[in-house]
Amino acid sequence: MKMVVQGEARLTGEVEISSSKNAVLPVLAATLLTEEKVVLRKVPFIEDVKVIKFLLKELGVEVKEDKKDLNIIGQARYNHPPYEMVKKIRASFLLMGPVLATKGLVRVSLPGGCAIGTRPIDLHLKGFKALGAQFTFSGGDIIARVNKLKGTHIYLDFPSVGATENIMMAAALASGTTYIENAALEPEIVDLANFINSMGGKISGAGTNIIRIEGVKELKGTEYSCIPDRIEAGTFMLAAAATGGDVLINNVIPEHVKAITAKLIETGVEVEERGSQIRVKGQKKINPVYIKTMPYPGFPTDMQAQFMAYLSCADGSSIITESVFENRFMHVQELMRMGASIKIEGKTAIIKGVSKLHGTEVIATDLRAGAALLIAGMMAQGSTTVTNSYHINRGYENVVEKLRALGADIKEV
Ligand code: EPZ
Asked: Of 278, 273, 185, which Cα lies nearest the Cα of 233?
């Protein structure tokens, strides 16, 4: 699949943000913690959700679509999601915690996911081990066994989002109480805790660096809708700024995009917060800035590529340091093909602003790099073709329609 976008666009109008991919994926995994019916509302139609739905069905769970609602009934009858799908997205590894907690046995292939550096799972396994699981490895799979998970204290060397979520799900049905220390603070963690609590879970402290999970005997069915996607919102904020546009973003929680707003204002953009709306008005001159990606509430790594595209035409040199992933600069050479002037020194990129980018054929290497290339394509002179655009559809619902509605000349071929 390819996306072809014409340059020198100016985005204006309104866009509605979908439910958060990174909240919905762990919540879908957590539906395995109860055999009763769970109704999830406004689930985004994106590739990664399709994969997790497929894996739930493979595990023997009933998943019924009802427009944008999902009715999910049942727990895992089997304990081994199929290899080829687990390889497709890293989030599939989140099935391990719930299946281990409900079946005492789970076999999962080493996770796949974006090509943004090796993404170990040592912290996930450290948590499961601390809860009493034993591991064996065979043929690239991890097999974890336990009679009954037992609550304990777990310290995370790094505030890993996935590890915090996986351990939280496993501990929800353990006997006794678990404390996760140096836990991730992301809003998606809070959403997952709220979801599990809506099923009768007893989780407190989510959103702080110590999360307390009191294990319960069983969890009930529930109805739930996840928070809006702060990274989709941030991406549209950047697209508005980068095209000197004027866009009203609906269904956003301003607090969740504070770091993006602050940085955009530093570049000279006008950002107006109005309840669950944010208005972004770009301007011609872009001030260069310094950015360092950090775990939440710092500047999000998932917005690094999009901001780099925007800063490639700033009035001077910007510096971006990627401190969360060790190889998340795959988009740099693609931006340079469009005329950007970027130098990488280890984890730091120095972006020397140029007056114009030029459209050409570029390759999306992961979903956020793909989004960055769409932004660069709308800024550039001429037409840009983004190949491997399926990466973009993994995390952005109806992105072509949403951009066209804002005035972009874009099509998927
Ligand atoms: C989640 O990935 C998100 N994915 C990512 O979004 C996001 O970039 C990332 O968190 C950081 O915010 C989902 O929520 C589905 P981590 P995750 O565990 O959980 C290291 C997107 O674009 N680490 O916080 O995989 C790891 O190598 C995606 O939507 C370990 O060392 O992120 C990485 O350098 C991309 N050992 C860092 O921590 C572990 O056991 C952050 O990883 C786990 C992680």
From this structure: 278
Q: How confident is the model at residue 119 (pLDDT cuts 50, 70, 90)?
A: low
Q: Which of 183, 161, 164 shows the shortest CA–CA distance to 172?
A: 164
CB 133 within 8 A of CB 144: yes
Check if the beta carbon of residue 200 is closer than 8 Å to that of residue 220: yes
Q: What ranges make up the beta strands (E) of 239-304?
A: 246-250, 270-274, 277-281, 290-292
pLDDT category of residue 19 using cuts at 50, 70 and 90: very high
**For atom 22 of ligand 1, which residue has the closest CA?**
302
Instruction: Show Cβ contacts of residue 333 under 8 Å, excluding neighbours closer than 6 positions.
Output: none
DSSP state of 313: T
Closest C-alpha among 279, 294, 361 to residue 325: 294
**Contact, 14 vs 402, CB < 8 A?**
no
Question: Does the pLDDT at position 202 exceed 60?
Answer: yes
In 7-76 the beta strands, taken as DSSP E runs, fall at 12-16, 38-41, 62-66, 69-73
Q: Catalytic residue positions?
A: 114
Mean pLDDT (the chain) is 95
> 162 C-alpha to center of ligand 1: Å?
6
278-307: average pLDDT: 97
The verdict on the CB of residue 119 being under 6 Å from ligand 1 is yes
Average pLDDT over residues 275-280: 98
Provide the 10 A C-beta neighbour count for residue 411.
12
Phi-psi region of 179 (alpha: psi -120 to 50; beta: other; left: phi over 0): beta
- Give the pLDDT confidence of 351-403 residue by residue, as tens digits: 999 999 999 999 999 999 999 999 999 999 999 999 999 999 999 999 999 99
- What is the spatial distance between Cα 116 and Cα 132, in angstroms, rounded to a whole number? 31
pLDDT tens per residue across span 313-360: 999 999 999 999 988 999 999 999 999 999 999 999 999 999 999 999
Q: Tell me how far the alpha carbon of residue 161 lies from the centroid of ligand 1, in angstroms.
A: 6
Residue-level pLDDT at 114:
47
Least Cα distance to 20 among 263, 252, 255 occurs for 252
Task: Tell me how far apart the alpha carbons of residues 99 and 343 are, in angstroms, rounded to a whole number.
Answer: 45
Beta carbons of 362 and 2 less than 8 angstroms apart? no
Say yes or no: CB of residue 302 within 6 Å of ligand 1.
yes
